[in-house]
Amino acid sequence: MGSHVAEHLLNMGHDVVVLDDLSGGFEENIPKGAPFVRGSVLDHELIDRLFDRHSFQYVYHLAAYAAEGLSHFIKRFNYNNNLIGSVNLINASVNHNVKCFVFTSSIAVYGAGQTPMSENMIPVPEDPYGISKLAVEQDLRTSHEMFGLNYVVFRPHNVYGERQNIGDRYRNVVGIFMNQLLRGEGMTIFGDGTQQRAFSHIDDVAPLIAASVDYPNAYNEIFNVGADEPHSVSELASMVAGAMGMPLNVVHLDARNEVKTAFADHSKSERIFGKREPKSLVDGIRATAEWVRKHGARESNVFEGIEVVKNMPPSWAKVVRV
């Protein structure tokens, strides 16, 4: 997602500096014209040096380990990366009088039983990933009240598309399915596949995030962003197989603890940013499949450092290290 937002910002005429530790992405994704610094948001001294050197006017924070289900079993890692890393950037933004801080949160903050999810609902996150995202949202609110730091929060959901890391075993089901097909494996589905999500192509998300600083009415507000129409995971598997030109081969695993149905209301976003025609899931999957076939299968590292093994899905327990 970050590479697409950076590309849109460059096209808008901004100077962009990219900070990334490449733990979930690839240097080849960084758009030309954006100086690249390899480093972590956990390195507050590096962050301070970058802010001193570049005098940033705007900060776009998209760095997170977004493995929602896995976050139950990597709590310390989750909160360090997704909360403490965010606080490092917020501190630097306050100290350097940044005009606006744009943060990508998640609909994981809502929890279960709230569909369609709207920004006026009381968040009740059900996993540490959602908890960490909500905590950053609240810190931004208090930083605005205390220090005058303007912010815009986006809650994307189930974003997929070109340049994503299809080798990641724990997140981004579209990429997981495509990588499994390329490797001659069955597409693994937790439970019966009736769980529903509104899968959002990157083109429906990144342009809006990039342009948000040019909308003063968006400042200090929270917006859902993404696709409107939910689809079941079983439907998604069929579409992916068709787009990849391969037989439908599904392997059902034991159900895991997850929200059954999740999709969002985008009327607030439309009021501020205007109505935009989303890319259909069929077209988005087709575009992603075309990119994936050109780049081939990916092999990502097994996650090391699992902190809690109790109740971990058996399929994950086979590909992690404690």
In short:
Helices cover 36% and strands 15% of the residues. With 322 residues, the chain is α/β, with parallel strands linked by helices.
Can you offer a commentary on this structure?
There is one protein chain. With about 325 residues, the protein is an alpha/beta fold. The protein has helices at about 1-10, 45-55, 75-95, 130-145, 175-180, 205-210, 235-245, 265-275, 280-295, 315; strands spanning about 20, 35-40, 60, 100-105, 150-155, 160, 185-190, 195, 200, 220-225, 230, 250-255, 260, 305, 320. Helix 5 crosses helix 7 and helix 7 packs across helix 9 (about 280-295). The longest helix has 21 residues, at about 75-95.
List keywords for this structure.
3-stranded mixed β-sheet, 15 strands, 322 residues, 10 helices, alpha/beta, 4-stranded parallel β-sheet
Low-confidence stretches: none
Total strand count, please? Answer: 15
Q: Describe the strand arrangement of the main beta sheet, using strand numbers.
A: 3-4-5-10
Average pLDDT confidence is: 94
Radius of gyration: 19 Å
- Which of globular, elongated, flat, extended, rod-shaped describes the shape? globular
The major pleated sheet works out as:
4 strands, parallel
- Helical content stands at 25-40%
How many distinct helices? 10
